[in-house]
Amino acid sequence: MNIVNILDEIEKVDGEIYERLNPRRAAMKDFFNMGKKISLAAMPLALGSMFQKAYGQTNPTAVNDVLNFALTLEYLEYHFYNYAVANAPIPAGAPKNAITTIRDHELAHVNLLKGALGTNARTVLNFDNFDFTAGIFLDVFTNYQTFLKVATAFEDTGVRAYKGQAPVLKGNDVLTIALQIHSVEARHASHLRQMVAANVPGASGLKPWISLGAGGVSNDTGISQVDAVYARENTDIQAGVTITGIATGVTKAAAVESFDEFLTKAEVVTIANLFLKPAFRL
Amino acid sequence: MKNLQKEELEVLQEDSSIFTANLQRRSFLQYAGAGMAGVALVAAGCKKDKTPDNMTGVTLDFKDDTGVLNYAYALEQLEAAFYMQVAANPPSDLSPTERSYFQDIQFHEIAHREFFKKALGNAAIKGLEVDFSSINFTTRAGVLGAAKTFEDLGVAAYNGAGVRIKSDANLVIAGQIVSVEARHAAYVRDLISNGSFADLSSLTGLGADNAKGLDGALTPDKVLAAAKPFIKTKINVINL
Description:
By secondary structure, chain A is an all-alpha fold. Helix content of chain A is 57%, strand content 1%. Chain A folds into three domains: 3-56, no CATH class; 61-209 and 263-280, Ferritin, core subunit, four-helix bundle (Ferritin), CATH 1.20.1260.10; 211-259, no CATH class. Chain A has helices at residues 3-13, 17-21, 25-37, 43-56, 61-87, 94-117, 144-169, 174-199, 252-258, 265-273, and strands spanning 237-238, 241-242. Chain B has a two-stranded parallel sheet. In chain B, 60% of the residues lie in helices and 3% in strands. Chains A and B meet through helix 6, helix 7, helix 8 and helix 9 of A and helix 5, helix 6 and helix 7 of B.
């Protein structure tokens, strides 16, 4: 393995490799010195770390901020489901399998975002850093229905949060990854809404898509504690175009359902902080 | 360089009147689009791209957001047409709740279609002629299978097109629509097999990665190739 050959190869596709590495001259020196001591088998790992240092720095701060913000939300979701799978009264079979599938995706998202951020990743969040009752949902891990309600709110929040940050990622390769996570969260939300409809008394009409709330309110779940999650979801004007009545049969409800709305970062932070213990709040 | 020039000639000699051949050339150009060879290729490719639409075709010009919005408009036309046909004559074994939700989806897709038409104004492509001869509309299984194909493809299409969008407003709109398509996809999948709402391992052909928890994402050439059997109107693609 010849490090110079590797750098030359990279230079062919990235003319700025030496420039990228330059600010990290000290790291390079460390690397070459280390090369004398470490075994050949450990070389690929050491190389990976060096290139991460070189390329990890190139993400604009704003992009890293968004990825870390997303990482916080993914930690929240992962720990929520991971604890619930083992401790909450989720019926065995399809329900437990669905929550396990969702848990696995959230863990994959955590790992993916951590990897993309490298040394810029935020400090790790553990289960103990969260309070999933938020002081409101006291039986979240002992009452299946409460668990489903909170899970639905988390997924709909996740969908809205990613959507709101897309413009910051515009033109960056990580936008595609963010979009690929975003639509997975929407699939989760769709399924959880169906689970709420099937299991929570009075919620049988809850649709897989966010509809117009009773009396025209933005929150269609009927759970007033999660109003903030659904702010502006009763909007029927998109980019200046009124969707209600845009064609025969497109009612206000259909118009509202056909476009999901985004949440601002500040709005999401307010929601997430409800579930983070004070020392870990954003 | 020599090899690239040779390939360029070979590729350009292909008859671009065939839709698939056209797409293959586009994707070749996309991958070759690095360095001087790429510039020469693109310049050569553009000469052919300037040919006007024939009477039956539409052109999606991906040079700017208008092309991306027209691409979305084309896909929404396809979806809307499908759900309208289902709603007009639903299979007898579709339950009342399922019929009601399929009607919801129909109006979502119509709203998307009409939104793009209105937003694009004079720049909108014309209405597409669809071909659903391969779909069995008389059975629940036939309808659900086709709906799953359309929804999963729609999600992958929007996810893959995001990087091409230049304006914040258009990117947000695309994001507002794609999550609704993903909700549809999950619902339809659960009807086919409960729990398959986000079976990412079944979506690798659309660019999904289960180990990373990522949904599908496809470039427009691949999406249009997959949608081609359902669209009679010839779709020309340029500047992809």
